[in-house]
């Protein structure tokens, strides 16, 4: 699948088959994540989660994470503000990394969904406790992963009226 196709057809997939996702495939996604543009010299770390009990436990502090209970794996995208070279940029860099994972997952036939963590304090603390993330590191998102058990049409969010040519 080419890049434009992977971007335009990406949807949040929340239902997965029981087929496992290989380590090699997850590594492809991590490569895609770390290829994202970075304003703050790569202030990111990633936690790959595969244990069913850990994936299930996210629901205890997150009301919209049911898909993790079916996911084969998830990647937690975390930012370290102490490593960023420009203040506040960790958030932007980690968002770009998250999007790269989502697009790459779609391109290789996986289903994926952005599970929002930051800026909800209860979710940040809950994920820190669950995954042993140090207190100075801020989890931005989790991406749930699995082979898709649902199909969605491309979204039709293109709105020409939101485009301003030359000036607003
Ligand atoms: C910052 C952010 C946080 C999100 N958090 C969640 C979440 O916690 N749970 C969830 O099911 N989907 C979450 N989503 C996915 C959105 O619900 C989804 O992208 C939106 O409904 C559009 O659908 P689409 O991704 O299929 O185009 C999140 C998306 C973003 C960008």
Structure in words:
The chain is of the alpha+beta class and 168 residues long. The chain has a single domain (15-150), classed as 3-Layer(aba) Sandwich (NADH Oxidase), CATH 3.40.109. Helix content is 32%, strand content 17%. The chain has 5 helices and 4 strands. The protein has a 4-stranded antiparallel sheet, sandwiched between helices. Helix 2 crosses helix 4 (89-107).
The second-level CATH architecture is 3-Layer(aba) Sandwich
- Count of DSSP strands: 4
CATH superfamily: NADH Oxidase
The helix/strand class is: alpha+beta
Descriptive labels:
168 residues, alpha+beta, NADH Oxidase, four-stranded antiparallel β-sheet, 5 helices, 4 strands, 32% helix, globular, binds flavin mononucleotide
Describe how the helices and strands are arranged:
Layout: H1 3-8, H2 23-34, E1 44-49, H3 52-57, E2 73-79, H4 89-107, E3 111-116, H5 121-131, E4 138-146
Antiparallel strand pairs: 1-2, 2-4, 3-4
Bound molecules: flavin mononucleotide.
């Amino acid at each position: 699948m080419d890049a434009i196709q992977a971007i335009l057809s990406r949807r949040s997939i929340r239902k997965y088959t029981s087929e496992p996702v290989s380590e090699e495939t997850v590594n492809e996604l991590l490569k895609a994540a770390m290829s994202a543009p970075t304003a703050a010299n790569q202030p990111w770390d990633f936690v790959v989660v595969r244990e069913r009990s850990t994936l299930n436990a996210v629901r205890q502090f997150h009301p919209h994470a049911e898909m993790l209970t079916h996911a084969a794996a998830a990647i937690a995208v975390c930012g370290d503000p102490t490593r960023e070279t420009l203040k506040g940029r960790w958030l932007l860099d980690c968002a770009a990394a998250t999007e790269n994972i989502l697009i790459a997952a779609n391109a290789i036939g996986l289903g994926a969904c952005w599970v929002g963590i930051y800026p909800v304090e209860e979710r940040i603390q809950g994920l820190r406790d669950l995954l042993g993330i140090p207190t100075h590191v801020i989890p931005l998102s989790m991406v749930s992963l699995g082979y898709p058990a649902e199909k969605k049409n491309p979204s039709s969010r293109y709105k020409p009226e939101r485009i301003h040519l030359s000036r607003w």
